[in-house]
Amino acid sequence: MNLAALFAIFKQAKNTQAMNVFLVDDHAILLDGIKSMLAYEGSVEVIGEANSAEKALDFIKYHSVDLLITDFNLPGMDGLALVRVVKKISPNTKIIVLSQHDETHLVKEILKEGVAGYVLKNDSHKELLQAIEAVKNGKIYLSNDINRILIHSMQFPDEERLLTDREREILKLIAQEKSNKEIGETLFISERTVETHRKNIFRKTKTSSLVGLIKFAYANNLI
Amino acid sequence: MNLAALFAIFKQAKNTQAMNVFLVDDHAILLDGIKSMLAYEGSVEVIGEANSAEKALDFIKYHSVDLLITDFNLPGMDGLALVRVVKKISPNTKIIVLSQHDETHLVKEILKEGVAGYVLKNDSHKELLQAIEAVKNGKIYLSNDINRILIHSMQFPDEERLLTDREREILKLIAQEKSNKEIGETLFISERTVETHRKNIFRKTKTSSLVGLIKFAYANNLI
DNA sequence: CAATAAATACCCACTAGTACGGATTTACAA
DNA sequence: TTGTAAATCCGTACTAGTGGGTATTTATTG
Q1: B27 close contact with A: CB closer than 8 A
Q2: Are A184 and A190 in contact (CB under 8 A)?
Q3: Which intervals hold domain HTH luxR-type (chains A, B) (predicted)?
Q4: pLDDT in tens, B6-45
Q5: Where are the domains of chain A?
Q6: ipTM score here?
Q7: H or E stretch including B191?
Q8: What is the separation of C-alpha B167 from the centre of its chain, rounded to a whole number of angstroms?
């Protein structure tokens, strides 16, 4: 009998009402690490994993999942889109988002979708375990850093909506290598209007070069 | 007595010649995951961890480390720089690089420094364990994907040196929001020369807009 | 109702960069 | 030695974008 088997017995012994968990992350190492970490916990059982949102949906469509732990950045369909679909097709599935991102805008965006937890990859594993525990008890769990960010955004509400929706839309098109003219044609507005938006975007993001703007777009996950 | 304690006893029992390991990654969750994963392995003992290259060096300066497992992307000093310093101050320390990057150029760059292993974060944890096992036996371990990349680069040697050193240097400066004039002043060359390089960079990278170029720079870790 | 924010649109002057072009020196490999 | 690659440099014409304005309409909010 090996250690893993021995371990399984112990786990089962203290396992009263285990919650089934499905993991999504494109980094297999991280996935394995979390699985390994959860193996110590009798309260959860990992029933599956996927390295993309699409594969995760394939599973969730046909299986009942209590808890979904997903990365934000995924190849193809991203974490936000996954959350939206899961909330629709399986409303009882709780979701914990595991992300690198601590930008106010992104955090708020995904919290609006009604996720049960948000933990940063920079946080220790204890935060994740606490989040799982909280979710089991029907609570919402945000890691310390996220709480701090949200409080900050309440204290300085002007920072959060830096760019308007339209400006954001235009910035995305700029990042798609479109010229002002093309953007105007795409959005059915005059090139002059695009220029004005562009000026405002530069002013608001405190950048003066296109390069700086693209960096901003990267930092804010607009690319 | 809890499970962890019980586990420690088993570990010690089968522990013959454990290798001490130091981990470096800026994502605490990943760090915790790997630690948890290695806890099953009697052959290695994690003696420390750090979330930055600088902190890792502080430790390595005063302690003997058999194996260093480090991320490539780190805040501040990056993995490549860390490897170089460690190879200098502690030549007997073996190094396994754990990275998201599979760009030929980056992989070759770090392999040149004489690391003992290179595993992608996309690989499963088995690859990492195999790498550790190989390193213990004095071998060099490259994960499957990395091997494939290296073989590909041998088959298509023209792809790897897409940009010359000078062009790379100039691209970095472009990405730092410098104008052609400023770049010329920085490198003590004429603005015209910078223009020529710029043209060549655009041609070689098959991009036509600055935005596309910045994206290329991101993809190739030049930013 | 007044004030504000967002989206729309235009003018003018200016500059940085683009797109052609061509050219020289150095170094290294066939 | 001949050829190639890399790095250096220049001219001219053109365009896209920058920076400075101003102004209108619509919607929201105090």
Answers
A1: yes
A2: yes
A3: 156-221
A4: 455 444 444 446 789 999 999 998 998 888 888 877 788 9
A5: 3-155, 162-219
A6: 0.60
A7: helix B191-205
A8: 23
CA B41 to centroid of chain Cα atoms: 24
Q: Which CATH architecture has domain A3-155?
A: 3-Layer(aba) Sandwich (3.40)
d(CA B101, CA B119): 10
Q: What are the tens digits of pLDDT across the range A15-70? A: 446 789 999 999 998 998 888 888 877 788 999 999 999 999 999 999 999 999 99
Q: Give the mean model confidence (pLDDT) for residues A196-217.
A: 88
Band of residue A96 on the pLDDT scale cut at 50, 70, 90: very high
Domain at B162-219: CATH code: 1.10.10.10
Cβ–Cβ of B4/A119 closer than 8 Å? no
Cβ within 8 Å of B, A 91-130: 98, 100, 119-125, 128
Alpha-carbon gap, residue B29 to B33, rounded angstroms: 6
Q: Contact B19/B136 with Cβ under 8 angstroms?
A: yes
CA separation for the pair A88, B49 (Å, rounded): 41
For tokens 């889109």, the residue is: A81
**Which residue, chain included where needed, has tokens 């990042």?**
A175
H-run or E-run covering B49: strand B44-50
Q: Give B218's contacts in chain A (Cβ within 8 Å).
A: 218
Given a contact cutoff of 8 angstroms between Cβ atoms, the answer to whether B120 and B100 are in contact is yes
